[in-house]
Amino acid sequence: MAKVEIYTTPTCPYCIAAKALLRKKGVSYEETDVSGDPAGRAAMTQRAGGRRTVPQIFIDGRHVGGSDDLHALEHRGQLDGLLQA
């Protein structure tokens, strides 16, 4: 199973939706809460190619984007392949 990392904040509806999709698929993930953590958010932004919004999701170190991007991968039938890598 691939390593999944997700940068979040507690009240973000997109974060909640992304985590719900991952849980539905039975995927465990490492969550990093960047609320109130300027250094953590700066690290996330750098790692995500300048994207500052949450969530930012990485699968095996590869940036896949945010919640909409994750759901688009699922809709296209490509998410399972990434998660099995």
UniProtKB/TrEMBL annotation:
Gene Ontology MF: a single term: protein-disulfide reductase activity
Record protein name field: Glutaredoxin
Keywords linked to the UniProt accession: Cytoplasm, Disulfide bond, Electron transport, Redox-active center, Transport
GO process annotations (BP): cell redox homeostasis
Record bears the keyword Transcription regulation: no
InterPro entries, per the entry: GLR_AS (IPR011767), Glutaredoxin (IPR002109), Glutaredoxin_subgr (IPR014025), GRX_bact (IPR011900), Thioredoxin-like_sf (IPR036249)
Keyword Electron transport among record annotations: yes
Gene3D superfamilies in alphabetical order: Glutaredoxin (3.40.30.10)
Residue stretches making up the Glutaredoxin domain: 4-64
Provenance organism: Paracoccus aminovorans
Functional description taken from the UniProt entry: Has a glutathione-disulfide oxidoreductase activity in the presence of NADPH and glutathione reductase. Reduces low molecular weight disulfides and proteins.
A Pfam entry, by short name: Glutaredoxin
Family of the protein in this entry: Belongs to the glutaredoxin family.
